[in-house]
Amino acid sequence: MQAVTGTGSVVDADEDYSDYVSARWPALLRSAVLLGCSLHEAEDLVQAALVNCYVSWDKVAEAADRDAYVYRVLVNTHTSNHRRRWWRERPSHRLPENAAMQDANALVDVADLVQRALAGLSVANRQVVVLRFFADLTEQQTAAALGIPAGTVKSRLSRAISQLAKDPHLADLLGRRLT
Questions:
Q1: Are 149 and 75 in contact (CB under 8 A)?
Q2: Which residue in 1, 29, 38, 112 has its CB near the most CB atoms, within 10 A?
Q3: CATH number of the domain that residue 20 is part of
Q4: d(CA 172, CA 120)
């Protein structure tokens, strides 16, 4: 399969897709985790979203902003996956202790505090925060990814930042860093 880029050059679409996935996988995975998925769920979510993108890669390649398009697919896949009722595994608040992981506890603690703070946001506000700050999309890209006006992105960010500023989990994190 071949595609024509905006500069008029012809590239192999499979190679283009592969290059995109290689470059964006870590950011997409991080965004999926911050949307509320465990690491394994996030990997599955990103894979499912990228499969959807591969099927219509010609549309993705022609999009004005590929990142916004792919993140929109990621958010939509996340939303549709969480509409389904899940009856199997239930997450627990405490993980079993593991001596090999003791050195990584500080990083895990920080990640846990951030995830708890993000979990306190509404789904819509969490999506905006994750895409805007953790995926590093612009306001316009975030708006395009979520299918909302840029002004809505700004107002949701304002409300989310205000709520996060009052979050006790983040206050605990700041307290640890200051001491």
A1: no
A2: 29
A3: 1.20.140.160
A4: 15
